[in-house]
Specification:
Largest sheet: 6 strands, mixed
Number of domains: 1
Shape: globular
Oligomer: single chain
Domain DUF5753: 29-210
CATH class: Alpha Beta
Strand content: 15-25%
Helix content: 40-55%
Radius of gyration: 17 Å
Low-confidence stretches: none
Protein name: XRE family transcriptional regulator
Distance between the termini: 56 Å
Strand order of the largest sheet: 3-2-1-4-5-6
Number of helices: 8
Amino acid sequence: MGEILALAHAATQPGWWLDFRHDIVQGLGDYIAYEDGAQHIRIYQNFVLPGLLQTRAYAHHVIHSISAISPDSPRVTERRVEARMRRQDVLSRRPPLELSAMIDESALMRGIGGADVMKEQLERLVELMRLPNVTIGLIPLETAGEPIMVESFTLMSFSAAYDAELPDVLFLESISATEFRDDSTTHLYRLAWESLATAALTPDESLDRVLRIARDRWGR
């Protein structure tokens, strides 16, 4: 219980995201606080690229698409895009966040925003894949055996604080809410991560695949 209380205390400290609290979806402020304090984040994304890797144009189209279900004003959409861009500062802070991401290859084939947006997005992805603190593995379309049927998820790990080892935090995202679990459920998603890692291409193979998709599908 002490570890959980320590983590909760760390996540409630004032931060830049408070300026966006009236515009971002419920629960996202807490998520950003955890993200800002994390040492290592593992993300599996099966439909779109993770927010920490998105360009502004790509993020705008992703966030705007939600308006078809939950209408928002253009101002709110832009505020949410801006918050997403601010979140990416964790990749260049000192010390930087260590980010590991498993991405389904189909996310790179999906034409969000059109060819120009996707070309720019994959060029940005290549830049990030070459950073020492970013590791990305693609789950290839030709994955052998049964597909790994699991929703997108994020596992966050933290440095020790307040003389306590802090537990990993699991984040699951839906249209209407965010969800945190630091109980035994987290263990199941660690196992899912290990299975995904087994199915994924190596970082070098993933980089080659991204370059090929950028050239063959979105190149001009």
